[in-house]
Amino acid sequence: MKLAVVILNWNGLKLLETFLPSVVKYSDGHDVYVIDNASTDPSVSFIEQHYPTVKCLKLTHNIGYTGGYNEGLKRINADVFCLLNSDVEVTENWLNPIINTFESKMNTAIIQPKILDYNHKNSFEYAGAAGGFIDQLGYPYCRGRIFNAIEEDHGQYNNEDDIFWASGACLCIRAQAFESLGGFDSRFFSHMEEIDLCWRAQNKGMTVSYVGQSTVYHVGGASLDVSNPKKTYLNFRNSLYTLVKNTHQPLFIIVCLRMLLDGIAGIRFLFQLTPKHTLAIINAHGSFYKSLPGLLQFRRQHPTRKAHSLLPSIVWSHFVLNIKNFNKL
């Protein structure tokens, strides 16, 4: 099986200096690529000078996470793409369990390893932890992370299991599956595009898996910090995009409930004296309304949709029932 490790970069020189060494060291026998999203810093010259074995694919302008990977992966010949954030430290033999699972389970199209926090290595990392799920309203959560409640790693998720979505911080996907799905939805630009991809894959009968025998460490927030209103905007907008495109449930009811909860979140930001985040939610809804005709067209063109969640509301479970641990859901 031919696997390519593919890192998307935009002005990430310092991240490449820190994390590329572990990728090169522990990906021996596999091609490593960097897709450069038209960086203006010395990223490309750094790679060419210090890591000549790493293949650098240069794009002419920054087209985000979705566009960058969609364009760059067209130029890579491999059976499996391992999409890796530039702020991820990998570990020895991290790829072997992933390859073994792909070879033994032919219906598995997408795999995520265990993702721990680079700065607190005994804790799971927010973006993916031990594999993602969503509730019936489309709100995401993870094994090891519910909203901002992060679990410590005690080996409780060292298993291999099916999940609903794999984190874009480290997402391994069969090239054939990526192509058949049409890649990422470029409307997303960044954030939650991996949830949409995984949801579409499952609507086509593919399986998404977590392999706990493989471990990576993720910094998180290197491109957009959680305090940045743009992150709030993208998360709220793209979550609605994903829900409309893929949910099997009555759309009008689900979207109305989401609008209500998003409004409550906006009011909460006001009470926290962060009105820029409230404005970001309003702008996210405005962008969603403009995109709604195209999203509904996709929904009509892809009528096969499978049930995605048994949990009615992670918001209720966490904020009302005070559940902070995945295993207590």
> Percentage of helical residues?
25-40%
Contiguous helical run count = 10
Domains, number: 2
Given this structure, which CATH class of the largest domain is correct? Alpha Beta
Tell me what portion of residues adopts beta-strand conformation. 15-25%
Please trace the helix and strand order, writing H or E for each element. Answer: EHEHEHEEHEEEEEEEHHEHHHH
Cα-to-Cα separation, first versus last residue: 38 Å
Report the strand count. Answer: 13
Q: What name goes with the CATH superfamily of the largest domain? A: Spore Coat Polysaccharide Biosynthesis Protein SpsA, Chain A
Summarize the main sheet: 9 strands, mixed
Rg, nearest Å: 19 Å
CATH topology category name of the largest domain: Spore Coat Polysaccharide Biosynthesis Protein SpsA, Chain A
Low-confidence stretches: none
What structural class do you assign from the helix and strand content? Answer: alpha/beta
Descriptive terms for the model:
329 residues, 2 domains, single chain, two-stranded antiparallel sheet, alpha/beta, 10 helices, Spore Coat Polysaccharide Biosynthesis Protein SpsA, Chain A, nine-stranded mixed β-sheet
Description:
With 329 residues, this protein is α/β, with parallel strands linked by helices. The protein folds into two domains: 216 residues, Spore Coat Polysaccharide Biosynthesis Protein SpsA, Chain A, CATH 3.90.550.10; 100 residues, no CATH class. It contains ten helices and 13 strands. The longest helix is centred in the C-terminal third of the chain and has 27 residues. The model has no long low-confidence stretch (mean pLDDT 95).
